[in-house]
Predict the structure of FAD-binding domain-containing protein.
Amino acid sequence: MSLPQRTTVLIVGAGPCGMAAALSLNHQGIQDIVIVDAILAGENWSRAMVIQAATLEALNNVGCLDDLLSVGKKAKTAGLHDGSSYLLSADFSLLSPYTKFPFALVLPQTDTEAVMLEKLNQLGIKVWRPFKVVSLKASPEAEEQIFEVQFESGDMIQARYVIGADGAHSVVRNEAGIAFKDPNGDDNHDYGSLSQLALGDVTFISPPQLGTPDNGVSISLSNGSFTLLAPFPVSASLDKPPGLYRFVSSVPPEDGTAPHAPSAEYLQSLIDRCGPPALSSDPATNAHPTRIDKVHWSSRYRTRAAVAERYFARSSSGGGVILLVGDAAHIHSPIGGQGMSLGIRDAVSLGPVLKADIESAGGTPSDRLFEDWAARRRKRALSVVALTKETVRMMTAPRRVWPPIATLGFAVLRFFGRFSFVKRMVAYRLSGLAEI
């Protein structure tokens, strides 16, 4: 089936951010929307795992939260350990004075996308797949202020607004000539043992005994290494095997480049070398040894940070408007679970701004609304990049400083980590509520 030839708003990318943009626009009464994606639904089996409180607020505002809550796991805390020794935790339950959703929702990205896609279907909004954008240029009909967007299939759409939600390698951003680089000028992306991460959705021969079953998320540091283990939510609505966990580990520099799709053996070696004793397969280390049974999905991630120079552009030749959200606008370390949540808030916040511009049609185009929106969202992205870099520095400190100093630093964290105000502060920084 051929794409429509013309639309008011074209959204490129049908991940969580692109679909959130469509939901926000529809909530504002904007019906003339086309959303496309270069791949078929469900081809990315997992990826992001957490939706933060501020993002739950945003999704609630556009009527797309109840179904997510019904299938996700509400994590009230996230614990940080030095090996098997407690350091501190983020206690999201302490955020109840600030939000209706004092928790982090643990839900794999594919299930987030499935819920959002069903909501779009209910609203009569079709996602067109697979359609890959190859070029974007101002229409010769300059007085109409539209873009002509060409696809690999040979199809072409004319659109007044193009929203780039097409990821870190955004074609929309590249076609607009918008720079995408580390805000601190760091082109080396050297984060020590956290320069690479290995990820896997795994089941175990015997359930891990972490001692914190209510957390939902357990994070461990060991001599500058990092591991994370989070159980998938148990729900009949999720097409996932029982006892499935998301495992993430730093890759020791001496390993070189991690495998593209790490095997069970490689992930197990990372657990044994980098993880807490409670996950070890060695009976000499762990009184209840466990071992990965099966890898259902795995990947690797190279840690880097980049922010788009601009989130908004208008063609100098009189073409339409380009707007960037999600990974097309910013990327950073996944530690802290900030990326997808920040991108969804970008997208939801765009709805009222775009509506205001559409309603002002007929007069002289004004960029002030878009520039103000772009400045706010970019400022927030810079703050999140700074937070993730600060977290990475803390986690890699034992490899970079004299061991007694690192030990003292962890002792200080352990002492202050007992206090509720510290647990609330950490949770608040992670929640995204500071921007509301």
The chain has eleven helices and 21 strands. The domain at 6-72+107-185+305-395 is CATH 3.50.50.60 (FAD/NAD(P)-binding domain).
